[in-house]
Amino acid sequence: MKLREAFTGSGSKSPYASLQKAAFTYPAIDNHAHPLLQAKNRLDMPFEGIISEAEGDALTTDALHTLACHRATRELAKLFGLPDGASWEDVKGKRSELEYVDLCKRCFEPARIQCILIDDGLGANNIVHGISWHDQFTHSPARRVVRIEVIAQDILTEQFTQLSSPASVEDLAKALSSFAQKLGDTLTQCAADPFVVAFKSIVCYRTGMAVSLGPDATFSLGAESKAHPELFAAYERVFAEYRGRAEVRLQEKLLNDYVVRAALKIAGNHKKPVQFHTGLGDSDITLALSSPAHLQPVIKAYPDTTFVLLHSSYPYTRDAGYLTAVYPNVFLDFGEIFPFVAGHGQRSVIRQVLELAPTNKIMWSTDGHFWPESYYLGTMQARQALCEVLSEIVHLGELSEPAAVQIIQNALFHNANRVYRLGLEPYIKCIRSYPVFL
Predict the structure, then answer these.
(1) What is the rounded distance in angstroms from the CA atom of residue 159 to the CA atom of residue 172?
(2) Where does the Amidohydrolase-related domain start and stop, copy by copy (predicted)?
């Protein structure tokens, strides 16, 4: 009997029942996600963002012709009780009719997410819910992931509004020294906060993953900026670009790299992991600079800091797997490909993760954001991919079923629980039946 036929739910018993049960029922820690829209703002963002990182016509037109969209349409139609053949517009219409909290519950209940680690630095803070609001849908309270570039930008914006333009060299030098000190103090406060479980960097979006260890690498948080002319010049350029803007966008490489290194040092001292966006993203990314392989010198330079490579590093998954295998402080998150990548691609990514990465160092996330359906699809498709790929490996005789069950439980829950020091116990429900989406 073929494996896929065995899992179709057509009456035949699965050859690997305990593996299937673990894949679809074991509680999960979502180690990287973002807040949901408030009910009054539920239609403020194009719903197509659930299946693509594209923008403009590439999102609202082209993304609808991807296999990811066709699959999401079928799965959401089933979730909403729509008939076979329902269209994307049918799905959008149905979801808009549902009361918002009921919509969220419908998405979260089958997902069995026990705890969410929420990066609240995505923006749109005036239209999204606060972190703790999400606790009504999970067994364990959500925790915060602090985006370091947002911290830096907020400090710079406050500074620049107080500086006269043009500013003197002396004033800028004092401001840079003050920025370094305040950045260090703020990051240290965040690291000491038990509600904060990790930092997050989007340097991949801004200047790429090749974070430098240049002449300002030893720049102490209280040092005189005149001793670091290159960093001062970068700060001066950021100030010049700020003029006429409401806030700072940090995209000056030397200053971006300094912010990352400052965070890495503080995070290592406080045993807080640092998540890095790698690979898959919107058009703001320079794809050639998004491979985590560029991080290798920094990983080696900060051996006491835990690096979490987010989003499967797609399409550079094998690069991430290599780093995870050879450096004890590197971990790999296999998220965001659900539901952005087609099903066969998701399975390929999982296979690539398992080619080299130690299974005690892989973690799962939804990268859920804005729409509750992003959490649903991000969870159910990940569970399905794990089930299929590990079933194939067991079928080939390369892995025992009990070992496969342990890999699933670790990937979904225990690895993240350990890495982020959450101290949770898996909340095991008594489940008589569970969905199979194959």
Answers:
(1) 10
(2) 256-422
Pairing mode, if any, of strands 362-363 and 330-333? Answer: parallel
Contacts of 15 (CB under 8 A, 6+ apart): 1, 3, 6, 391, 395
Supply the range of the domain harboring residue 305.
3-47+96-147+192-224+251-419
Tokens representing 11 are 């009456």
pLDDT in tens, 347-364: 999 999 999 999 999 999
Residue 122 has pLDDT above 50, yes or no: yes
Q: Which residues contact 379 (CB under 8 A, 6 or more apart)?
A: 28, 30, 111, 112, 113, 338, 366
For residue 368, which of 198, 43, 94, 113 has the smallest C-alpha distance? 113
d(CA 144, CA 117): 6
Segments of 229-279 assigned E as strands: 274-276
Q: Using DSSP, how many helices (H) and how many strands (E) does the chain show?
A: 18, 8
Is 134 within a domain?
yes
Q: What is the pLDDT of residue 216?
A: 45
CATH of the domain at 261: 3.20.20.140
Q: Indicate the DSSP class of residue 113.
A: E
- Report the number of distinct structural domains present in the chain: 1
Q: Is the peptide bond before 402 cis (omega within 30 degrees of 0)?
A: no
Reported pTM: 0.93
Strand pairing partners for 28?
Answer: 113
In a domain, 428, yes or no: no
Strand partners, 363: 333
Alpha carbon distances (Å) from 217 to 13, 230, 288:
59, 11, 24
Residue 61: inside a domain = no
pLDDT at residue 431, rounded to an integer: 57
Q: SS3 for 4?
A: helix
CA atoms of 85 and 139, how far apart (whole Å)? 35
Neighbours of 410 (CB within 10 A): 19
For residues 264 and 201, the answer to whether their CB atoms sit within 8 Å is no
Q: Which helix (H) or strand (E) holds 161?
A: helix 148-162
30-39 CB burial, b ≥16 within 10 A, e <16: bbbbbbbbbe
What pLDDT is stored for residue 434 in this prediction?
Answer: 56
Question: pLDDT, tens digit, for every residue of 23-68?
Answer: 999 999 999 999 999 999 999 999 999 999 999 999 999 999 999 9
Rounded CA gap, 29 and 413, in Å?
Answer: 5
Whole-angstrom CA distances from 404 to 29, 190, 430 are 18, 37, 21
What are the start-end ranges of the H helices in 281-400?
296-301, 317-326, 337-340, 343-356, 372-395
Q: What is the pLDDT of residue 123?
A: 83
Euclidean distance between CA atoms 21 and 385, whole angstroms: 14
